[in-house]
Amino acid sequence: MSRLRGYIFARPFMGERAPQHVQNIVLRDYCQRRGHELLLAATEYAMEDSTLILATVLDELTEIDGIVMYSLFQLPRDAAGRRHVVDRVLAAGKSLHFAVEGMRITDAEEAAAVERCWLVRTAMEPAAPAAPSAP
Amino acid sequence: MSFAAPSDALGAEYLERGYVVRDVADPAAHEWIVTTTARVAAEALGVPAPSGLGASVEFMDGVHGRVAPAALNDFRVAVIHGINALAELRPAYFAVARPYLEAIVGNELAMQQRVNLSIQMPGDTSSLLAVHADTWSGDSPYEVVAWLPLVHCYGTKTMYLLPPRHAAAFDAQFARLAGASSETAFEAMRDQVEWLEVRSGQVIVFDQSLPHGNRVNDESETRWSMNCRFKGVFTPYGDKKLGEFFEPITLRPASRRGMGYRLPSVQ
To answer: What is the interface pTM, i.e. ipTM, of the complex?
Structure first.
């Protein structure tokens, strides 16, 4: 049985919001269905773009088998940051799971699939509203 | 003309220290909470319930003699579920802190839907709360915590809080300290935190946006404390929303009228 550290958000992400207790329910359901042990979830700070808690979870990788996030869209918004997280996990021989999407990363191929989701989602994001033109 | 009120001194103390400690406002409600919690705990353990306030406090102080560390979380969950299932709990909890909440927060309040319980046995490392502010996890800065000790809390058996006069300096180093280990963050404030000594029969109201936490309980007794969040019902909400986390408890007549008011139709 793999021991996965939960990871949830205390702020909206990509225009979405899920109450923390709902995020925990989804994590628990994901782990139960797949036979993983869920370790108490770490809650990322509310501050915009904070990944400080994720960094502390990554530092814990030697003691656990992987991380289960509520959503893949809780990965860092910048591509380099996402790559760093995935590289850390794979280099440690561990796994990264995304409960609400039912996806996981255990190798480079699965990492590419997750990144494609990110790129498509980003392309679908509404563009910032244009500044009003002068009358 | 002066708008000063008798409660202004309490508010000034709260702003200065980040918390206030006062005798419970409703001793009967306090006694009900303590004795009922002890009874629910005794039922969970399958032992006779203690009789009366003093025996209940003594029973809880010594519960580490009956609960193995590995069984603590299941025991705690059983007691939390047991007491929160009682409809009397939240009104009683509000009653012990009501005048202080009304002075610090206001008289139209939203209350957390569940009252939390902490049980921290001597030497236990599984119940630690590292340095944190609730706002960092999405709570509104308009919220306060009413913290009710069920036993005498002192030394490492209680919680600590970083007073406002030191919090700004900590915030300035937040990115460095909050991303480091919790031990590093605590060491940075060790000499500035206040340990909130409080006995059963008193209540603390504190500012949850200030860094706070607990350490390993090195005393010889088990800590039992409850906590519950309150905020002005019409103040901004954070990640803890109305309905899913908070419930309005003291809406006043003018607000009830205002919420239901509609301008006459002109059609």
So the answer is: 0.73
